[in-house]
């Protein structure tokens, strides 16, 4: 049953290591977040490995895991022990040839509250995700948990207002965005400030337009594992925003951190009463939104 107030956390980490070490590290950091009072805790995207999508290499499919195996077993036990909700983004092997960029939402008793498969899949230099990930087929969902109703989207989804809207319309208190985003080091000086600003602004806009809390959990660190490339410098800057887009907590660009903020459902309701964007939506006029382009 949702409470009127509960605390959420995003964990910002350097994950440029092997799966076993990343698992141990993330279990420890989730425990620390819970000890600091967090009740719903999110890890960054693809927590268990370095960001392998910098190249198209079939050997990287070995990093994937079947449903309800290593990650689920470990974090399910921890969620039950601590009595917290944990969002665990992972590389899912659904079957031979079908892989997803997914996230478990694990409830306080260790059970699965939900599964989300990333819907929007990018294909940019050093972000070659279309080679690895089949687009999600579960749709946009808000998952009831013992702490609150949680919406979970993943990284590239954060640029799409439709994804935020459809999740919020299902009653999500919070939109979590596990993320792996950073600068191409050779472009940072010219484009970096605007890229980072756009990233924050679009998600703050989702918070305002939907009257929801938004929480983004990003990586940090330079991941440069392909010879002859500059790699990706993950920009960190994880944050939690309130329902008017106000920043409640924000991390640095380069430190491992836990951010904690309080979700206040009375405040959320008050914001929506005063800014009734849901009330005034002209749903009778939105039919063309399902078209690729309006020619």
What's the topology here?
Elements: E1 5-12, H1 19-35, E2 40-42, H2 70-82, E3 85-95, E4 98-106, E5 112-117, E6 142-144, E7 149-152, H3 161-168, E8 174-178, E9 182-183, H4 188-210, E10 213-217, E11 220-223, E12 232-235, E13 239-241, E14 247-250, E15 257-264, H5 265-274
Parallel strand pairs: 1-2, 2-3, 7-8, 8-10
Antiparallel strand pairs: 1-15, 3-4, 4-5, 6-7, 9-12, 10-13, 11-12, 13-14
Helix pairs in contact: 1-2, 3-4
Keywords: Hydrolase
Domain CN hydrolase: 6-265
Pfam families: CN_hydrolase
Task: Looking at this protein, list some descriptive labels.
single chain, 295 residues, alpha/beta, six-stranded mixed β-sheet, 5 helices, EC 3.5.1.53, C-N_Hydrolase, N-carbamoylputrescine amidase
Largest sheet: 6 strands, mixed
Strand order of the largest sheet: 5-4-3-2-1-15
Q: Separation of termini?
A: 47 Å
What is the helical fraction, as a range of percent? 10-25%
Strand residues, percent: 25-35%
Tell me the Rg in angstroms: 18 Å
Keywords: Hydrolase
EC number: 3.5.1.53
GO molecular function: N-carbamoylputrescine amidase activity
Pfam family, one: CN_hydrolase
């Amino acid at each position: 049953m949702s409470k009127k107030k509960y605390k959420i956390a995003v964990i910002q980490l350097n994950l440029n290591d092997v799966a076993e070490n990343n698992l141990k590290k993330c279990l420890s950091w989730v425990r620390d977040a819970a000890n600091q009072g967090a009740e719903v805790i999110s890890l960054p995207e693809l927590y268990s490995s370095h960001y392998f999508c910098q190249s198209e290499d079939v050997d990287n499919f070995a990093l994937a895991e079947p449903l309800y195996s290593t990650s689920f077993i470990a974090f399910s036990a921890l969620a039950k022990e601590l009595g917290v909700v944990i969002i665990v983004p992972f590389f899912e092997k659904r079957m031979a040839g079908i892989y997803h960029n997914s996230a478990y939402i694990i409830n306080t008793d260790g059970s699965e509250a939900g599964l989300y498969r990333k819907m929007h899949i990018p294909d940019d230099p050093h972000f070659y995700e279309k080679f690895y990930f089949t687009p999600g087929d579960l749709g946009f969902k808000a998952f009831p948990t013992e702490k609150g109703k949680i919406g979970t989207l993943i990284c590239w989804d954060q640029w799409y207002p439709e994804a935020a809207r459809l999740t919020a319309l299902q009653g999500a208190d919070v939109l979590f965005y596990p993320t792996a985003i950073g600068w191409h080091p050779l472009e940072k000086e010219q484009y970096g400030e605007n890229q980072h600003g756009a990233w924050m602004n679009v998600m703050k806009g989702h918070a305002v337009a939907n009257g929801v809390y938004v929480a983004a959990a990003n990586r940090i660190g330079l991941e440069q594992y392909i010879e002859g490339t500059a790699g990706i410098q993950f920009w960190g800057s994880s944050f939690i925003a309130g329902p008017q887009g106000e920043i409640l907590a924000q991390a640095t660009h380069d430190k491992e951190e836990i951010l904690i903020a309080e979700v206040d459902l009375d405040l959320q309701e008050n914001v929506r009463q005063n800014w009734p964007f849901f009330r005034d939506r002209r749903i009778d006029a939105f039919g063309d939104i399902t078209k690729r382009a309006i020619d």
